[in-house]
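Subject: Predicted fold for PGG domain-containing protein, 103 residues

User T.R. writes:
Posting the sequence so we have a shared reference for the thread.
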Amino acid sequence: MAQVHPQNTERSISWFKRFQYDKERDSPNDGRNVLLVIATLIAAVTFQAGVNPPGGLWQDDNVQEHHAAGRAIYASQKHPYYVFLMSNTLAFSASLLVITSLT
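User M.O. replies:
I've generated the structure tokens; pasting them so everyone works from the same file.
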């Protein structure tokens, strides 16, 4: 097992502390702006995933395989699609709540 030198541990901790909120260095307005940018990016990505689902859409009707044009290809796998749908909806709703509460 490799031994960790105290100097390397201190260096990694000081690197991490640089990104933590500091009352003397950062204003609350900066923290709010960072949260707004992150929440907006999450909202944009989850909205795009909802509009254009993973795997794409069926292009033509296939009655034998029960595929309707415009339906998500991923929707043919019920359980994974519902997990995706619920997690995407939760992330989108949470990011909208954060955006609304910060503005």
